[in-house]
Design a protein that fits this description.
Blueprint lengths: L1 E7 L3 H9 L11 E10 L2 E8 L5 E10 L2 E8 L5 E10 L5 E10 L4 H28 L40 E6 L2 E6 L2 E5 L2
Antiparallel strand pairs: 1-7, 2-3, 3-4, 4-5, 5-6, 6-7, 8-9, 9-10
Length: 201
C-alpha cells in the first residue's frame, strides 16, 4: 500500500466536494482520461474510470463516501488485477485539515514499478488538492457547486450523470503510453513519465 498525506489550509467541505465530484476528476486527478458515474446507491457510487499510465487501464470503481473518508474498490477491470484506496480527512488544531491518501495497484508490471507510479500520482494529487482548494478560497470563500453541507453525514457526492442521464463531457485525448521497458546488457531500463529507472540483475 502506497501512502501520502497533505495538509490543506482551506475549507474542509470544499476538499470533500473535490474528492466526491467525480465529473471534475479530469481537472485534477493525474492520468485520469475518463470518469463517469454509472450509478448511485446511498453512499456508494459506481464510476467508470480510465487512467493513463504504464498502459491505459479501464475499470469500474465503487466509491463509498462517508463524512470523514472516501474509499474505493475495484469492481471490475479488463486491465488490472486490483485497485483500492482511500482519502481520509481529519481536522487539525490550527484550523487546517489533513488528507491521508493511500492506494494499492495490482497489475502485471513489477511491484516496484507500480509503487513508484502510485507514489508519483499521490504526490501530484496532494498538490492539486491544495491548489484547487486555494482557488476556491481566493474567490472569496466560494465552494464548488453543491459543496454546502458536503461534510454532513447526509451529504451525497455530486453526480454529473446517472445510468439513464446524459454522460458528462470527456476530454478528447488519445491514450498515452507512459511506460517503456527495455532489456539492455546492463539489466532492465525502465522509462516512466519522463524519468529513467534502471534495474540490474
Amino acid at each position: 500500500m502506497v501512502k501520502n498525506t497533505v495538509i490543506v489550509k482551506g475549507d474542509r467541505a470544499a476538499t470533500y466536494q473535490i474528492l466526491t465530484d467525480f465529473s471534475k476528476y479530469l481537472e485534477w486527478y493525474p492520468e485520469c482520461e475518463k470518469c463517469a458515474v454509472i450509478s448511485v446507491n446511498g453512499t456508494a457510487t459506481d464510476v467508470d474510470m480510465v487512467l493513463g499510465g504504464m498502459k491505459v487501464a479501464r475499470m469500474v470503481l465503487r466509491y463509498d463516501c462517508q463524512p470523514d473518508a472516501v474509499t474505493y474498490n475495484m469492481v471490475s477491470s479488463p486491465d488490472l488485477k486490483g485497485f483500492t484506496g482511500s482519502y481520509r480527512i481529519s481536522d487539525n488544531p490550527d484550523g487546517t485539515h489533513t488528507v491521508a491518501m493511500e492506494v494499492e495497484l495490482t497489475a502485471s508490471a513489477p511491484k516496484f514499478v507500480t509503487d513508484r507510479m502510485m507514489k508519483s500520482s499521490l504526490e501530484k494529487q496532494a498538490k492539486q488538492l491544495q491548489d484547487r482548494n486555494a482557488r476556491f478560497a481566493g474567490a472569496g470563500g466560494a465552494r464548488p457547486a453543491a459543496a454546502a453541507g458536503a461534510a454532513s453525514s447526509a451529504a451525497a457526492p455530486a453526480v454529473a450523470a446517472t445510468a439513464g442521464g446524459t454522460q458528462p463531457a470527456v476530454r478528447a485525448k488519445r491514450p498515452r503510453c507512459l511506460l517503456r521497458v527495455r532489456k539492455t546488457g546492463e539489466g532492465v531500463s525502465i522509462w516512466y513519465a519522463g524519468a529513467d529507472y534502471r534495474k540490474t540483475p
